[in-house]
Design brief:
- The chain has a 6-stranded mixed β-sheet, sandwiched between helices.
- With 235 residues, the protein is an alpha/beta fold.
- Helices cover 40% and strands 11% of the residues.
- Helix 2 (28-39) packs across helix 3.
- It contains 8 helices and 6 strands; from the N terminus they run ααβαβαβαααβββα.
- A hairpin with a 4-residue loop joins strand 5 (159-162) and strand 6.
- It has a single domain (3-193), classed as HUPs (Rossmann fold).
- It binds iron/sulfur cluster (SF4).
- Iron/sulfur cluster (SF4) binds at residues 72, 74, 115, 119, 122-123, 126-127, 204-205, 207-208, 231.
């Protein structure tokens, strides 16, 4: 890394740490207005297309905001349909990022159903590495992480330094509850994935996602029975 790059990294890290303290009590629109002001086109949103809440909030702060979507090749058709609808009707620019290899090429190299045998490697190849590429042109990215989703997300900061990617990571709805999300969706008519009304509380790739049972937390249906709770995008 050159001295100029090191300087830039230090500046972004300091900025993230200060904003994390100052914006802890700020509303989601305030956090996203700060992001739009601070980073301009170097800011993007990532979306799993479970719903378009953060994309909607961000598009109000910055019309035409870039929305990065990782098309793993294993999504439910409802998820791809939600991505298409978001692209068609919202004031955002959807950037679809694909893994280096198709599912067929991955099967040829690693054997079929890698998600059953080594889900960490599968997530790395189909999510983690593509995200690094998808975020290459940005200094800051916003996610839809919420503290109430699962114990592993209970300490999610609203703004933090993402040391792995050397970028500012923003979670504008970290303090929201599911009720807050539902109220925002209803009030603004925000697009949601139809699977949310079919028993799925958190939606990832089809082979690794099941409906949740009564009393389970929202992410209990992800990699159920495989001892895995996160894909590596947020670890
Ligand atoms: Fe592979 Fe499952 Fe991870 Fe999707 S969620 S990338 S199918 S292991």
């Amino acid at each position: 890394m050159t001295t100029a790059q090191e300087e830039d990294t230090r500046r972004l890290r300091d900025l993230a740490e200060r904003a994390g303290r100052e914006l802890e009590e700020a509303s989601a629109p305030e956090i996203l207005q700060w992001a739009a002001r601070t980073f301009g086109r170097r800011f993007c949103v990532t979306s799993s297309m479970e719903d378009a809440v953060v994309a909607h909030l961000a598009s109000r702060a910055m019309p035409g905001v870039d929305v990065v979507f990782l098309d793993t090749g294993y999504h439910f058709e409802e998820t791809i349909g939600t991505r298409d609808a978001v692209e068609a009707v919202m004031d955002v620019n959807v950037l679809t990022v694909t893994p280096a290899r198709t599912v067929a090429e991955q099967d040829a190299e690693h054997g079929p159903a890698l998600h059953d045998r080594d889900p960490d490697l599968c997530c790395f190849l189909r999510k983690v590495e593509p995200l690094e590429r998808g975020l290459r042109d940005f200094d800051a990215w916003a996610t839809g992480l919420r503290r109430d989703e699962s114990p592993s997300r209970a300490d999610t900061p609203v703004v933090a330094w993402d040391d792995k990617r050397r970028k500012v990571k923003i979670s504008p709805i970290a303090r929201w509850t599911q009720d807050d999300v539902d109220a925002y969706v209803t009030e603004h008519g925000v697009l949601t994935n139809p699977l949310l009304t079919d028993g799925y509380a958190s939606i990832g790739c089809a082979p690794c996602t099941r409906r949740v049972l009564e009393g389970e937390d929202a992410r209990a249906g992800r990699w159920a029975g495989r001892g895995k709770t996160e894909c590596g995008l947020h670890g």
